[in-house]
Design a protein that fits this description.
Length: 265
């Protein structure tokens, strides 16, 4: 079985132990035992190796991640662009290969049924949650970022109630405060949905549902293309699930856009 695992290095089946077990036609416990026999405390540690996750210190992560672009041939920029685009397409394909219909439906149902939806991400993932907040805000009310210019994280969490939904996102190298926010929210009965990269991500431990998105490319930092593609999939799923209520929200939005003459025509 070990040789088969090595052959699967980088394969999307490695994103979850259940998918891997199905591919290898064994029980997940068999894979866990193999990981322990190889000296790993759990499957997640072996998973990082098989997915090509480099164990570099955090202070050198971005410099090493950018090494391909920094050392690339200046006369070959177009090929570099093609390579990066191909890598991004493969990540989207891997995301879709592992995405299940019940996961999409559960995310959409939880998001559209919640009294409030708050979103949290920092650094690159601030763009991710802002995009998701915009999309969800087209379909329902009371959607916003957890913290904004008027209040901080603690105030944002204090304004949420049991059963509300927090959507959080991060990938390696994970941001400590995002993990802490997920943990605090869940301990107070807030439903936590996370979008992250690996099944052993620290965000997963403090979530009710996790969607996994691969992102390894030659981009100088963590690529956001597959993550933003996931946003569009999630928002469309929410629109489909909510049906007429989403249509009403979109019509109301169009009405205000027309009344305020916001768009140039």
């Amino acid at each position: 079985m070990l040789s088969h695992l090595i052959d699967l290095r980088g394969d999307p089946a490695l994103l979850s132990i259940s998918a891997l077990a199905e591919r290898l036609e064994v029980n997940p416990s068999t894979i866990s035992r193999l990981a322990r026999s190889l000296g790993y405390t759990r499957f997640g540690e072996l998973q990082r190796i098989l997915l090509g996750d480099t164990l570099t210190p955090s202070h050198s992560f971005y410099r090493q991640h950018a090494s391909t672009a920094l050392s690339a041939d200046r006369s070959d920029l177009l090929n570099q662009a093609h390579q990066l685009a191909d890598e991004q397409c493969r990540n989207i394909s891997r995301f879709l290969e592992n995405l299940r219909a019940d996961e999409l439906e559960a995310f959409a149902n939880a998001t559209m049924a919640a009294g409030r939806v708050r979103l949290y991400g920092v650094r690159q993932f601030h763009a991710f949650v802002s995009f998701l907040a915009y999309g969800l805000g087209m379909l329902r009310s009371d959607v916003s970022l957890l913290s904004d210019c008027s209040h901080g994280i603690a105030e944002g969490l204090a304004g949420m109630s049991e059963g509300d939904v927090l959507v959080a996102a991060s990938c390696r190298p994970y941001t400590r405060e995002v993990v802490n926010v997920c943990k605090a929210a869940r301990s107070h009965g807030i439903r936590v949905l996370v979008v992250t990269d690996l099944s052993n991500s620290p965000l997963v431990r403090h979530s009710d549902q996790a969607l996994l998105v691969p992102h390894e490319t030659s981009f100088i930092s963590n690529s956001m293309v597959a993550f933003l593609s996931a946003v569009e999939c999630l928002v469309n799923a929410c629109a489909t699930i909510s049906g007429e209520s989403a249509a009403t929200a979109l019509s109301r939005r169009d009405q205000f856009i027309d009344e305020l003459a916001i768009e140039l025509r």
